[in-house]
Amino acid sequence: MPTKLAFIGLGVMGEPMAGHLLAAGNTVAVHTRSKSKATRLLTRGARWADSSADAARGAEVIFTCLPDTPDVEHVLLGEKGIIEGISAGSVVIDHSTISPERTRELATILFHKGCALLDAPVSGGDLGARNASLAIMVGGDAKAFARVEPYLRCMGKTVVHCGPSGAGQLTKLVNQILVSVTNLAVCEALSFAKKHRLNLDKTIDILSAGAAGSWQLANLGPRMVNGDFRPGFTIDLQQKDLRLVLESASDGKLSLPAASLVQQLFAAAQAAGHGKDGTQALYCVLEKLSSLH
Amino acid sequence: MPTKLAFIGLGVMGEPMAGHLLAAGNTVAVHTRSKSKATRLLTRGARWADSSADAARGAEVIFTCLPDTPDVEHVLLGEKGIIEGISAGSVVIDHSTISPERTRELATILFHKGCALLDAPVSGGDLGARNASLAIMVGGDAKAFARVEPYLRCMGKTVVHCGPSGAGQLTKLVNQILVSVTNLAVCEALSFAKKHRLNLDKTIDILSAGAAGSWQLANLGPRMVNGDFRPGFTIDLQQKDLRLVLESASDGKLSLPAASLVQQLFAAAQAAGHGKDGTQALYCVLEKLSSLH
Asked: Which member of A76, A141, A182, B283 has the greatest number of CB atoms within 10 A?
């Protein structure tokens, strides 16, 4: 008999992820705020659930993929939330990027209901979600992870158990520090190169092969140079994640000068109307600071 | 008849670089401050020159590899400098990382003597120098570059003509912005991970494959984790290069907030006695800021 799954939150990430679970032959109940976003999945055989509680009812594994911490709290614990429908022994897998501290508290609540919550934030963007090539960073009970790993492998190429509850979220935040500050490195390097009239494409090419090389340089550098600010990952979402970083840093008494700086420069990008652009639009801020337009 | 070359400055980079030119069958005159550093090359057939002028006499191509701008000025224009021995038609190739603005002035002086100066700073460290796998970034006259390119290919794997005089230095400085700020990204990411008790080796491993990946993360990250601060490239030298970056930025009216920040944090590393350590010792400063010892 096919496993009964539920998927809640069918945004740009969740919809294709749920599609992979469906394609693998599972029965999937789906719920999301706007039913229209479920249309394609419903025509492919997914069952519409009128609430998160309804989706969770009878499901062995329940996936959530939501924007922020309050959304996950609401879907899990709010009126007609998962907690009202879930059965003991089920596993909730949260693909959202949210507070690691709050994740641990939510996991404890579910534990007392006889269920497990795994935090499983992803990286790889909408392209990774569509191609099932996501990196999935998982925190929580190792036995629950082993049980659900095959489902995660339907959606991701790199699936890693990072440690106890919250460790997936923390690993994702480490990722966000790296991508943001490295992005800033690329912005400053290219604005220096532009001001000094170097050939920017050639410069990216030469430097990508050596100690200066990074995914950000090779992938976002050319888009900065070409003024292509279409979002792979938006500045608004990056700012949400940097907020989580800085919250987790203040709780942990950490000093992160560069992460704080890049958060302020992203705020300038948002002020200039670049919130819905890709993170490479940070380059516009650096150009503006040096009158490079 | 073999080409007559001269090599001035036999430090950790220059000595193996001159060795490759010798191995390729050229006659090489060498000069450096301490004659003892030339011993190996002399036993292999290099000719000792008592001064830079003496080395330059009769040489078609003269290579310099020196610590900083004043050293290049002295070797080129000072007493018994290259300028006293050089013949019209010769090419000087400067492998030092020095001021791009001063480079242009020096090139003009040589131009009026009927000679060319190519700026040709390298990246790849002492290992790259020994393995002839350096990246060599060249600025200056294109015809002079074409003429000397075969010699550069004895020493480097990537040899690129970046543009007019100074463009090699500027490209190297773009490289230094990237390596420094990306290094800081890695330091902050790992100090966040350490404070939150993530498995650091695993975290580096997971994140290296995706959008957070960089040469700095993959190569310096593990050394930070293992407390291995042996120098590939020292903080003192990195600071010299960041000084050149910030000088060239102020001349060009550029705002480089992250490059300035990392320069200040490297200053803290120097204050703590890490000047002769590798750039990965920047991690010690971030650890100290967050009491992570």
From this structure: A182
